[in-house]
Structures are given as structure tokens and as C-alpha cells.
């Protein structure tokens, strides 16, 4: 089973999904368009969140970083006048150092990620979407900025004029991801930001065409007209996409078979028939492992029902 993952939403789902499907049967294709070099090392936030989840290191109070981490290196760097705008933990930084060292030795990002998975004792396959660099760039009245500058540095406050994926045209689906897609027909689109988390994965050249031949179920990260978390609403609006579960389904409509929306969402289900997509409801607010596990069972049931 293949899961497309971004930040916090999809890892919460993965936490329940591994209660339903053996970890070794899960392949997680992770967004890399939010990756950024900081203080000489490559930080891959979405990959690291998945790595820390599967290795029981994640800080579940925040759904990012390592539980019990300290920030002395970050604090001292700033004291020395080195402006590190992302607060990187000391334990977290060790992951970045190892990854970056492997990349400098000539390994691909996929190979470096597999090395980290082995070091952490992870059974699932965790794969970056591409070995080529892609960056989500946010255009604002203050100028263009990397997603991390917008979301972390500016706390997501600037008006969003446009969202682009720099380098997407020259990027390619990683060979490991292509291999996984060749042998697995079931794909879950996780409840992550559709524009900057899932968008870069599905906009890789050839990906949408591949997905047209797969069984694809998505979980909406929107309830009503608001995202569960993060800046998805501002980014969808900037793309001219309706901020709703229907807007999410419309963006995925050329390959999407089924979408699961929250049971509290009052959206008219009849709208989805216009884009050839079936819809069902479940509790998508994953505030506990039980909720995540129950949602995972619904997803698997819907996938298996697709002809």
C-alpha cells in the first residue's frame, strides 16, 4: 500500500494505519518541496516526521521533532550571531548531519533516506518523491520566499499572491517510487496540505498519468471552509481552488476514485458526482490513536471496494 505524505496530517494517519496494515507492507512517498539547507545541513521536515514516527521518536504533542529534544546548539548559534530562523533540536540535527554527509559523499536523497531508515530500525519503506530538488515558493507583497521562510519565518502572515513549485519541470519521480507504483495499485492521499505537501508529489512529470491507473482514496484536510491545521486555506485560495473538501477533490479529480470527508462537514455530497468521485464520511480529526485506526479501517475498506 502506498501513501502520499506531507506534514502532520498524514503522519497522524500513518500512526493508525500501521495498526491495520503491517509496517513492512507500507510505502510512504514523502514531499520534499519543503526541504531547505540550514547551517550547512539539509533539513527535510516531512521525511523526518515520518522517520521519527516509525522509530517511536516523534514528539506527539507537536507532531514534529523528537520528544525530549534540547536546543542548545540552536541557542548558541544565535548567540554567536548566526541567524538560524528554524529552531532545530540537537537530536534532530544529528539526522540532518548524517543525511547531508551521505549526500556529500554522492548518495542520492533516496539512498540517504534508506540508510536512515535502516539506522532507525524502520520496517516501512520511506521514500522521497524525487532525488531532484523542488521548492515551494510563495509570492507575497513582500516578495517571493521559500515556504519555510513564509510559514516559519513569517508565521504564515503575509498575503499569498501565488504558489509555485520551483524546479518541478526538471524534477522526476525517483526510481524507487516508480518501482513501488509499478507493483502496487492502492494509493492513499493523506490529509496533508494539497498545495505544498501533496501538490509537489502529484505535479511531478508523469505522476498524474500513473495515478489514473491506480485505485486512489484521499482524506480531506478541510472541514467546512477551514483547514484542520496549517496554511492550506490561503494557499488554495491563491491557486483559485475552492477552500473545501470539494476543492480538494477537484484538484485531484483526474485520478481520484474516492474521498473521505469529515462527519461534521455540511458539504453537499451530490457535488462530487460532477467530478466522477464518490464520497463518504468519517471522523477525520485524529486526536487519538483509536480515531486514526478507525479512519484507517474505513480507508482500506473503500480501497478494496474500488473495481
Question: How would you portray this structure in words?
Answer:
The protein has 307 residues and is α/β, with parallel strands linked by helices. It contains twelve helices and 14 strands. It has helices at 9-20, 45-54, 72-79, 90-104, 109-120, 147-153, 175-183, 199-202, 207-211, 232-238, 245-251, 289-305; strands at 2-5, 27-30, 36-38, 41-43, 125-128, 135-140, 143-146, 162-166, 186-189, 215-219, 222-223, 226-227, 258-262, 278-282. It has a seven-stranded parallel β-sheet, sandwiched between helices. Strands 7-6-8 form a three-stranded antiparallel β-sheet. The chain has a two-stranded antiparallel sheet with strand order 3-4. Helix 1 (9-20) links the parallel strand 1 (2-5) and strand 2. Helix 1 packs across helix 12 (289-305). The longest helix has 17 residues, at 289-305. The protein is globular, with a radius of gyration of 19 Å.
Amino acid at each position: 500500500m502506498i501513501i502520499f505524505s506531507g506534514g502532520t496530517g498524514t503522519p497522524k494517519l500513518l500512526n493508525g494505519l500501521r495498526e491495520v496494515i503491517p509496517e513492512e507492507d507500507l510505502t510512504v512517498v514523502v514531499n520534499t518541496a519543503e526541504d531547505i539547507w540550514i547551517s550547512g545541513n539539509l533539513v527535510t521536515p516531512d521525511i523526518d516526521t515520518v522517520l521519527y514516527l516509525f522509530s517511536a521518536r516523534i514528539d506527539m504533542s507537536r507532531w514534529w521533532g523528537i520528544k525530549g529534544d534540547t536546543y542548545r546548539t540552536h541557542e548558541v548559534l544565535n548567540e554567536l550571531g548566526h541567524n538560524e530562523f528554524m529552531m532545530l533540536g540537537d537530536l534532530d540535527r544529528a539526522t540532518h548531519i548524517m543525511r547531508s554527509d551521505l549526500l556529500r559523499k554522492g548518495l542520492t536523497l533516496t539512498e540517504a533516506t534508506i540508510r536512515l531508515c535502516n539506522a532507525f530500525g524502520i520496517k516501512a519503506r520511506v521514500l522521497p518523491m524525487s532525488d531532484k530538488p523542488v521548492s515551494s515558493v510563495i509570492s507575497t507583497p513582500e516578495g517571493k520566499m521559500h515556504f519555510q521562510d513564509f510559514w516559519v519565518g513569517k508565521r504564515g502572515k503575509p498575503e499569498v499572491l501565488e504558489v509555485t513549485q520551483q524546479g518541478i519541470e526538471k524534477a522526476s519521480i525517483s526510481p524507487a517510487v516508480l518501482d513501488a507504483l509499478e507493483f502496487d495499485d492502492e494509493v492513499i492521499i493523506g490529509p496533508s496540505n494539497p498545495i505544498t505537501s501533496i501538490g509537489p508529489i502529484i505535479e511531478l512529470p508523469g505522476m498524474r498519468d500513473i495515478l489514473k491507473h491506480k485505485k486512489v482514496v484521499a482524506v480531506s484536510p478541510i472541514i467546512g471552509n477551514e483547514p484542520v491545521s496549517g496554511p492550506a486555506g490561503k494557499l488554495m485560495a491563491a491557486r483559485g481552488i475552492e477552500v473545501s473538501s470539494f476543492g480538494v477533490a477537484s484538484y485531484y479529480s483526474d485520478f481520484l476514485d474516492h474521498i473521505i470527508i469529515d462527519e461534521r462537514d455540511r458539504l453537499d455530497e451530490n457535488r462530487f458526482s460532477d467530478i466522477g468521485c464518490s464520497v463518504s464520511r468519517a471522523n477525520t480529526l485524529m486526536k487519538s490513536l483509536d480515531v486514526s485506526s478507525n479512519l484507517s479501517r474505513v480507508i482500506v475498506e473503500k480501497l478494496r471496494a474500488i473495481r
